[in-house]
Design goal:
Largest sheet: 8 strands, mixed
Strand content: 25-35%
Structural class: alpha+beta
Oligomer: single chain
Number of helices: 11
Radius of gyration: 22 Å
Length: about 375
């Protein structure tokens, strides 16, 4: 399963805050305001959460785990109050009677929450960052770039390594049932008693407050909507995907602010397994795409092929989602959208790749629609 790491900080005792979260079985991100990047980016993170994903907490160099997202009613994540995904300021008095979890006067800042349990437990003693990153170091990609964000999503492989080191280092606590944060069910029961269909996280409220005509105003808002649509198989030209994430590192390690990031990365598994057999690289443009956009997504295709697909371009698909394309983009597309590579040995198989789709999006009535405008690009024999 995937994993999430939540950063806990502030002036209060962070360990007490982790204890409170694990005891109640809920986590909610505190948003200071409604600035587009943090608001829409955080919403995109919640969009892709699934029951069974693992969760961890981080503070002062140390990680605390292990938890697992669980469904309370129809889902494992909810709006904390109806229409919390609309990017507008609200007053506590206007939402106090409709809150899933009441955080007092600060409740308007806690817009979304997720529900979880220990898996098997949350251990009181954390594990230092260096100890974690030196355990199966080649599997850690996102964890190395955990910086200036409230939480991050880990791939199945990265999550498996993080979960393993907790289980190995905490064998004594597991056997003796000591050094474990307590859990209780009353908050989950109170959430379950609500009519939860009103609280499901969907992009419609966000889109209604960040669109102009048929276009989305901010790229991160487009990202959040695309993440939701891929998770719910609403982009029919791209098919169904089992794992969806956004802002995924796509460059060698360097200062975090200069790292390249893939807008959306998705994976499809072999049936009845957790083995990735296809990767989707998506580059998003709220306005027009151009030749440079094709160059950019092809750079990410090469990275994913090398870092995830072990050199097999056939396992990688790509797409650009934009509001419009220049009329002459087909010419540049036919010139550059191709890769030649080899697979196997004795005999070597020569292969060709050109799996880049161009989709045009438009907004209407609270949702996005997508039209495939990919040029015909017949590969030579």
């Amino acid at each position: 399963m995937a994993g999430y790491v939540f950063a806990i900080g502030g002036d209060e005792d962070p360990i007490s805050m982790i204890r409170e979260c694990t005891e109640k079985g809920i986590y909610s991100t505190y948003l200071k305001g409604i600035a587009p990047l943090s608001f829409e980016g955080t919403l995109a993170d919640y969009m892709s959460m699934k029951p069974g994903d693992n969760i961890y907490f981080f503070c002062k160099r140390r990680y605390y785990g292990i938890g697992e997202l669980i469904s309370i009613g129809p889902d494992c994540k909810y709006c904390n109050y109806p229409r919390s995904s609309a990017r507008v300021n609200v007053q506590y008095e206007d939402i106090s009677n409709d809150l899933l979890v009441n955080f007092g006067s600060q409740s308007p800042h806690y817009r979304w929450l997720c529900t979880f349990k220990g898996a098997p437990y949350f251990f009181e003693e954390g594990i230092d960052t260096d100890e974690i990153l030196t355990y199966k170091p080649n599997t850690f990609k996102m964890l190395r770039a955990f910086w200036k964000v409230s939480f991050i999503k880990l791939s199945d492989e990265e999550n498996a390594s993080l979960k393993e080191i907790f289980l190995l280092r905490r064998q004594r606590e597991t056997a003796a049932q000591t050094g474990i944060f307590p859990e209780r069910n009353d908050v989950h029961n109170a959430i379950a008693a609500k009519v939860l269909d009103r609280y499901l996280i969907k992009p419609a409220d966000m889109l209604q407050t960040c669109t102009f005509g048929s276009r989305v105003k901010h790229e991160m808002a487009l990202e959040a909507a695309v993440v939701y649509d891929l998770c719910h198989n609403r982009v029919h030209a791209l098919g169904a995907w089992d794992y969806v994430s956004h802002q995924v590192i796509a460059s060698p390690f360097k200062p975090i602010d200069y790292m390249d990031k893939i807008d959306v990365l998705a994976m499809r598994y072999l049936p009845n397994t957790r083995i990735p057999c296809k990767y989707l690289v998506a580059e998003l443009k709220k306005d027009a795409a151009d030749n440079a956009t094709i160059d950019q997504v092809l750079k990410y295709v090469d990275w994913v092929c090398s870092e995830y697909a072990y050199g097999d371009y056939e396992a990688v698909e790509a797409c650009i989602i934009a509001a419009e394309y220049p009329e002459n983009i087909a010419v540049y597309y036919s010139e550059v959208v191709q890769r030649y590579y080899t697979l196997g040995s004795h005999p070597v198989r020569n292969k060709q790749w050109n799996s880049l789709k161009l989709l045009r999006y438009s907004y209407a009535a609270g949702e996005l629609s997508y039209v495939d405008v990919t040029p015909q690009n017949e590969m030579p024999d």
